[in-house]
Write a structure and sequence with these properties.
Layout (H helix, E strand, L loop, with lengths): L20 H22 L5 H18 L5 H10 L3 H23 L1 E2 L2 E2 L9 H17 L3 H9 L4 H17 L2 H4 L10 H5 L1 H22 L7 H26 L6 H14 L8 H4 L1 H8 L6 H19 L11 H20 L4 H10 L3 H20 L8
Antiparallel strand pairs: 1-2
Length: about 400
């Protein structure tokens, strides 16, 4: 019998009962100073990078303050048949589908080309998503969750992030092999049906899933309605912010490419030579590896998410990091990060880049991703007690 003692109503960043108010003020000041310094550093590159940094900060604060997570939501669904978090995710995707459709159908906004998060749906996506699902439960976070809980003061998530970067880099060295696996010919519903029909069909499907989850879920206490309202507010805010990212960056929100890049830069410091590797010889990857992380859109937004969560935790009075890390949970953190990093790279993204942004773009790989990630989460939930982690 699985235990369900883990709190869902609070982000997993609270490690002290009454954090000192003075500390919270200092953390808010530090977040403001970091934001100003980064804005000054990227301002010479034009207006887009500063705006994307601000969007990252807004995303981080939204994730933290609305307690919008993926890993805990899937665990609650599996262990307790509590579907509130997963239903909120469906609302987020429905809103994003409606917002994305006219923009992606037009192909340009204010003279800039825009494109969806569309990738081949095939065996490598299914395998990568399954691995990612296992890693989510061992690590205790996903792509966005790792960032916002680390930024919010959960020191264990730093180990997850390091493993995430290493796993993504490791997978990048094998991409030439993975991309040879079979894929479906059609990549997105919009390619086959056109945007109006594709968006309409997807909304009907999402609505059907929402109703099915409502029937599946057990009854809730009245107090749980407040949590659900907060999650729904987060869902709408995240969908709107993703639309703004699409308009400003020309592509939807993504997270894990930055982790792969950071892992590669770390490997370079240790003497790794990218010459001769297929993945890092491609033009985009080669330029990103040679340039500053502050000039990489995903990296800059990820840094913004960390800062936004840092400020959000302090504003909520909950920033209270602790260095106490037991060996088995720490091992789960590193293993979970490695598995997530590897899985995200071969699956063309994580719960954000593949599932959220992919589904909003009507990409079939987004639906395949969640179909494979949920069984992975179920296995991860069963493995958690081996590492001293409660369900």
């Amino acid at each position: 019998m699985w235990s369900s003692r883990t709190s869902y109503a609070m982000p997993p960043v609270v490690e002290a009962t009454h954090p000192a108010p003075r500390l919270q003020g200092k953390v808010i000041a530090a977040a403001l100073v970091l934001s100003a310094a980064l804005l000054a550093a990227v301002a010479p590159q034009g207006w887009r990078l500063p705006v994307l940094l601000v969007l990252g900060i807004a995303l981080g604060a939204t994730l933290y303050l609305t307690v919008f997570g993926f890993t805990a939501a899937y665990r609650r669904l599996i262990v307790d048949r509590d579907a509130a978090g997963v239903r909120a995710q469906l609302v987020m995707r429905a809103v994003a589908t409606v917002l994305f459709a006219p923009v992606l159908a037009a192909g340009t906004v204010f003279g800039q080309g825009v494109g969806g998060a569309v990738a081949p749906a095939g065996l490598q996506v299914a395998i990568g998503a399954f691995l990612f699902g296992v890693g989510m439960q061992l690590g205790g976070g996903c792509g966005s969750g790792t960032l916002y809980t680390a930024g919010g003061g959960n020191t264990r998530m730093i180990a997850v992030l390091v493993g995430f970067c290493a796993g993504g880099f490791w997978a990048s060295l094998h991409m030439d092999w993975w991309t040879r696996l079979p894929v479906w010919e059609t990549r997105a519903l919009s390619e086959r049906l056109g945007w109006p029909a594709a968006a309409g069909l997807q909304l009907v499907f999402i609505g059907g899933l929402w109703l099915a989850l409502k029937r599946y879920a057990r009854g809730r206490l009245a107090a749980e309605h407040n949590r659900e309202k907060l999650l729904l507010a987060g869902a709408v805010l995240l969908a709107v912010l993703n639309l703004v990212v699409l308009v400003v960056a020309g592509h939807p929100w993504s997270i894990t490419w930055a982790f792969t890049l950071w892992g590669a830069k770390g490997a370079q410091l240790l003497g790794w030579d990218p010459a001769g590797t297929t993945f890092w010889s491609a033009e985009f990857q080669r330029q990103a590896l040679a340039g500053s992380v502050l000039h990489d859109v995903t990296s800059l937004m990820d840094i913004g998410i960390l800062i936004g969560a840092l400020g959000g935790a302090a504003i909520a009075g909950r920033f209270a990091p602790s260095a106490r890390l037991a060996l088995r949970p720490l091992a789960a953190a590193v293993i979970g990060g490695l598995v997530m990093g590897y899985g995200a790279r071969i699956a063309f993204g994580c719960n954000i880049g593949a599932f959220f942004s992919g589904v909003a773009s009507t990409s079939l790989h987004g639906w395949l991703w969640i179909g494979a990630a949920l069984p992975g989460n179920a296995l991860g939930v069963r493995l958690r007690p081996w590492f001293g982690l409660e369900n």
